[in-house]
Amino acid sequence: MTARPALPVDRIQPAALRHITDFHADTVREVSEAVSRNDVVIVGMAQNPHVKNVRKALSAAGIGFTYLEYGSYFSQWPKRLAIKMWSGWPTFPQVFVRGKLIGGEDLTKAALADGSIKELLATAKT
Length: 126
Description:
Elements: H1 14-22, H2 25-37, E1 40-44, H3 49-60, E2 66-69, H4 77-87, E3 94-97, E4 100-103, H5 105-114, H6 116-122
Parallel strand pairs: 1-2
Antiparallel strand pairs: 1-3, 3-4
Helix pairs in contact: 2-4, 3-5
């Protein structure tokens, strides 16, 4: 499987690249560090029912997680945009297990159902 296409860095003017790199870099760093330090991380936002559902599903499965929340539908959208640009995932929640992006609610529930989340948690962290 290949990664989705992205504009090559050499096709971005230096001033634009600096703007891209600096765009809410503190938020991206915070998420990246949480993903590297914790076995399961949910990145979400207030008032989003999919975030609430995935938190309930993981809790019901006995899987602990770290939850990072960035605003609601009415606030902090630039921070959430920076996270989306970093991960490549277009919606929230974003669920990471052992540093790997699992996806949102549907894919997380599917991974719970087929046991692949517990398999990931049983493997050594890389």
